């Protein structure tokens, strides 16, 4: 009988188990003078009272009486066809096929096939040996940075046994690497070699700087200080800050820009501004892709230097003459500048009759008529011109 035509008995087991393979045609009552177990090579030999183990001495042995081959424990590499030759017979009575199921070998190193700012396409080779159990799916593990830990808790499980996958949910301008595990009915394989490092593409920042201080330092300057947004919101190389400003009442065409090309700067003074003007000031961070969202504040420049105006003594003037003289002073004062100046009054008005109060209620200042309800005298004089200050004279 040829070995090729001998019947085959199959034994299936899992790696790590203990296995006993019976010698076909031999029982406890058989008369055995010599016996040899073979697979790819000679394994165990029995002759008379002597037993020799040629391979895997710590795991292989003969069972007394039945001459069965014991393998403890069995490994995936033990899979194969075994033959038991009794009393120098040239052919075995039957062959024994041992099938050892184990976790698969690791897949090939994953390759980066393409990427964006938020996703990467991976491809890898399947395991060389699945160890008698087909691949069901793969597990992809992600590592952020060159020194980070592998994120095993949030590993990606593929839906099938395809050897490519798109990994999403990544962050822009971030270093990543990947590794893959194959899974069969026995469990997951060892991890593959890690992919080569890659950096996702940039995006414009989505973090806003926080303005901590914004105030005028003079009639023509504004001071800003700020705190940078979180680093992971920059999404690229942090190049610096962009300041945009314009008078609040003017159109967008009047916007001016300042670029601060140093990410470590945290304050700046804007100069050469208009006096006593409310400005709309915006601050952004920027990277090579452009600026991010802005933080905006409104800041007023100072009123400027005081102008001293001397009003003649009004004590002895008739009411009509006093009214005519003040009507002449006010428009001329306003004509010097299109914004209300600060006025230093060097003469406190004396108490007058109710006619003076009626006059103060109807003084025309430029384009508007200010109506005042305060009593006549120093307080009324202070109020009729916004920003005026009074000083008492002897």
Protein described:
The protein is mostly beta strands and 394 residues long. It folds into four domains: 3-101, Immunoglobulin-like, CATH 2.60.40.10; 111-199, Immunoglobulins (Immunoglobulin-like), CATH 2.60.40.10; 210-300, Immunoglobulins (Immunoglobulin-like); 307-390. The protein has helices at residues 319-335, 354-360, 378-384, and strands at residues 8-14, 19-21, 34-38, 42-47, 50-53, 60-62, 69-71, 80-86, 95-101, 111-115, 120-123, 137-144, 150-157, 164-167, 175-184, 187-188, 198-199, 210-218, 221-227, 240-247, 256-260, 267-270, 278-287, 290-291, 295-300, 307-309, 343-345, 364-365, 368-369, 389-390. The strands form eight sheets. The chain has a six-stranded mixed beta sheet, with no helix packed on it. The model is unreliable at 335-394 (pLDDT under 50).
Q: Helix count, per DSSP?
A: 3
Sequence stretches where pLDDT stays below 50 over 5 or more residues: 335-394
Name the average pLDDT.
83
Estimate the strand proportion: 35-45%
Describe the global form: rod-shaped
Q: How many distinct beta strands?
A: 30
Q: Kindly provide the name of the CATH class of the largest domain.
A: Mainly Beta
Cα-to-Cα separation, first versus last residue:
142 Å
Domains, number: 4
Radius of gyration: 47 Å
Q: Biggest sheet, strands in spatial order? A: 1-9-8-3-4-5
CATH level-3 fold name of the largest domain = Immunoglobulin-like
In CATH, the homologous superfamily of the largest domain goes by the name: Immunoglobulins
The assigned CATH architecture of the largest domain is: Sandwich
Range of helix content? under 10%
- Outline the biggest β-sheet: 6 strands, mixed
């Amino acid at each position: 009988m040829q070995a090729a035509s001998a019947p085959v008995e199959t034994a299936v087991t899992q790696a790590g188990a203990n296995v006993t393979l019976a010698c076909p045609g031999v029982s406890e009552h058989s008369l055995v003078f010599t016996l040899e177990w073979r697979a790819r090579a000679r394994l165990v030999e029995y002759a008379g009272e002597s037993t020799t183990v040629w391979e895997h001495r710590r795991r292989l042995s003969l069972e007394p009486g039945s001459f069965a081959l014991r393998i403890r424990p069995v490994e995936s590499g033990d899979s194969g066809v075994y033959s038991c030759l009794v009393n120098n017979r040239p052919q075995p009575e039957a062959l024994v096929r041992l099938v050892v199921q184990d976790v698969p070998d690791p897949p090939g190193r994953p390759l980066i096939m393409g990427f964006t700012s938020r996703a990467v396409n991976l491809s890898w080779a399947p395991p060389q040996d699945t160890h008698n159990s087909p691949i069901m799916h793969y597990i992809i593990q992600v590592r952020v940075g060159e020194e980070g830990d592998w994120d095993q808790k949030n590993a990606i499980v593929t839906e099938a046994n395809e050897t490519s996958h798109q990994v999403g949910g990544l962050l822009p301008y971030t270093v990543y690497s990947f590794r893959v595990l194959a899974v069969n009915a026995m469990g997951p394989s060892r991890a593959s070699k890690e992919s080569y490092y890659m950096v996702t593409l940039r995006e414009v920042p989505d973090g806003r700087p926080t303005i901590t201080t914004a105030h005028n330092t003079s009639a023509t300057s504004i001071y800003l200080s700020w705190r940078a947004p979180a680093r992971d919101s920059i999404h690229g190389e942090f190049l610096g800050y962009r300041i945009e400003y314009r008078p609040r009442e003017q159109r967008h065409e009047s916007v001016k820009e300042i670029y601060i090309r140093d990410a470590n700067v945290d304050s700046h003074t804007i100069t050469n501004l208009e006096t006593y003007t409310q400005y709309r000031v915006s601050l952004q961070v920027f990277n090579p892709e452009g600026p991010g969202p802005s933080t905006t504040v409104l800041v007023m420049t100072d009123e400027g230097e005081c102008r001293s105006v001397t009003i003649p003594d009004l004590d002895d003037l008739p009411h009509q003459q006093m009214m005519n003289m003040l009507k002449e002073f006010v428009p001329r004062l306003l004509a010097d500048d299109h914004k209300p100046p600060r006025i230093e009054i060097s003469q406190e008005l004396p108490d007058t009759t109710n006619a003076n109060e009626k006059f103060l209620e109807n003084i025309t200042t430029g384009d508007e008529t200010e109506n005042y309800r305060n009593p006549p005298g120093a307080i009324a004089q202070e109020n009729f011109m916004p920003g005026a200050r009074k000083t008492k004279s002897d």
